[in-house]
Amino acid sequence: MSESTSPSRRTDTREKIIEAAASLIPELGWGDVSSRRVAERAGVNTGVIHYHVGSIGELRRIAAVRKIRTFFLDRIGEALAQEDPAVAVETMLRALSANDPRDPELLLLYESLVAASRDDQLRAEIAGLLAELRQRLCDWFAERGVARPLTVAVTLTAAIDGYLLQRSLDPSVEPGPLIEGLVGLVRQQLAADGS
Question: Which pTM does this prediction carry?
Answer without folding.
Answer: 0.84
